């Protein structure tokens, strides 16, 4: 991690996001109704979904901290992918309703230009949500948390949608009243796209997809650089919430005693955990190297 307080930020970040989302929901909702901006009201509903998403994220982080037990021997880390999929689903459902309402308003022709104060309100929310995105994406990346990263992108989508609202309101005020409703449609499409991406990422994680090739190569190189390691004939890794798990099968010098082979395996484990901070569970299988060298390695 870059900073010593990254773990502390992990416990605090969602509460900050939760508070900011409640404030933005009320701020945009009230200002949207007072100024007559359909797009700003729609954007406030987006922030309302963020409030629910932040609550779900906080709950998932708490559950994922539970240690492994008999029922879940690999731990509770994957709850974060479930949380991420819930956030994505909320965004997609909310976007569908916003899209329907905006299109019906466009068809009926019942739109009028809002007050310029709606643009000022949208500009404030752009700044707040972009700051929350930068804060959360930093914490999420440093802690390798899919739930916090998903919540960060939720704030980024809110910042972009508020920017679209601001443009639409300004265009409406200067003589194109239809622009506010078109902006609401654009916001809906953007939010829906982000929701689909979050759902796809969650499914990818729940299906135990492999870690990046770079991580596998790092683990392989660290293991091969460990003294007395002859070769690696199997290596795979997967994400479990914030953690990375590896299965590694090593061949060591056939002349080593069992006790010494165990020490080599432990050295490999420690070196990988030092090189890859989120490698929590490393399962190592050690066997003696064959008399004839040159066995092929498999990485998957």
From TrEMBL:
Q: Which residues cross the membrane?
A: 12-34, 81-103
Domain Cation efflux protein transmembrane, first and last residues per copy: 15-207
Molecular-function GO terms, alphabetical = metal ion binding; monoatomic cation transmembrane transporter activity
- Which Pfam families is this protein grouped with? Cation_efflux (PF01545), ZT_dimer (PF16916)
Keywords, A to Z? Biomineralization, Ion transport, Iron, Iron transport, Magnetosome, Membrane, Metal-binding, Transmembrane, Transmembrane helix, Transport
* InterPro entries linked to this entry: Cation_efflux, Cation_efflux_CTD, Cation_efflux_CTD_sf, Cation_efflux_TM, Cation_efflux_TMD_sf, CDF_Transporter, Magnetosome_CDF_Transporter
Question: Aminoacyl-tRNA synthetase: present as a keyword of the record?
Answer: no
Protein origin, superkingdom = Bacteria
Say if the entry is tagged with keyword Oxidoreductase. no
Q: Where in the cell is it found?
A: Magnetosome membrane
Q: Which GO terms describe its cellular component?
A: magnetosome membrane
Q: What is its main location?
A: membrane
Report how it sits in the membrane: Multi-pass membrane protein
* Domain Cation efflux protein cytoplasmic, residue spans: 215-282
Q: What processes does the entry annotate via GO biological process terms?
A: iron ion transport
Please name the NCBIfam families in this protein's record: CDF, CDF_MamB
What family is this? Belongs to the cation diffusion facilitator (CDF) transporter (TC 2.A.4) family.
Q: Which named protein is this?
A: Magnetosome protein MamB
Question: Which species is this record about?
Answer: Magnetospirillum moscoviense
């Amino acid at each position: 991690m870059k900073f010593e307080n990254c773990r502390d930020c992990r416990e605090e970040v969602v509460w900050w996001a939760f508070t900011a989302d409640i404030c933005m929901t009320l701020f945009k909702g009230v200002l949207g109704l007072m100024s007559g901006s359909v797009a700003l009201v729609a954007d406030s509903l987006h922030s309302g979904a963020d409030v629910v998403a932040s609550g779900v994220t906080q709950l998932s982080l708490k559950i994922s901290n539970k240690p492994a037990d008999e029922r879940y021997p690999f731990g509770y880390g994957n709850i974060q992918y479930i949380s991420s999929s819930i956030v994505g689903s909320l965004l997609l459902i909310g976007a569908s309703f916003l899209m329907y309402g905006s299109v019906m308003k466009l068809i009926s022709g019942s739109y009028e230009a809002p007050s310029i104060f709606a643009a000022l309100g949208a500009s404030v929310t752009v700044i707040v949500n972009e700051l929350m995105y930068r804060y959360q994406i930093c914490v999420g990346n440093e802690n390798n948390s899919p739930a916090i990263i998903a919540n960060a992108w939720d704030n980024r989508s809110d910042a972009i949608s508020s920017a679209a609202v601001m443009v639409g309101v300004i265009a409406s005020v200067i003589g194109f009243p239809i622009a506010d409703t078109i902006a609401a449609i654009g916001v809906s499409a953007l939010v829906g796209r982000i929701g689909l991406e979050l759902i796809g990422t969650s499914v990818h994680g729940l299906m135990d997809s492999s870690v990046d090739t770079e991580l596998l190569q790092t683990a392989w190189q660290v293991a091969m650089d460990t003294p007395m390691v002859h070769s690696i004939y199997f290596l795979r890794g997967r994400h479990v919430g914030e953690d990375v798990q590896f299965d590694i099968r090593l061949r060591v010098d056939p002349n080593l005693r069992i006790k010494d082979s165990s020490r080599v395996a432990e050295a490999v484990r420690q070196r990988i955990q030092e090189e890859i901070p989120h490698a929590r569970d490393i399962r190592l299988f050690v066997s003696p190297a064959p008399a004839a060298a040159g066995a092929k390695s498999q990485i998957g």
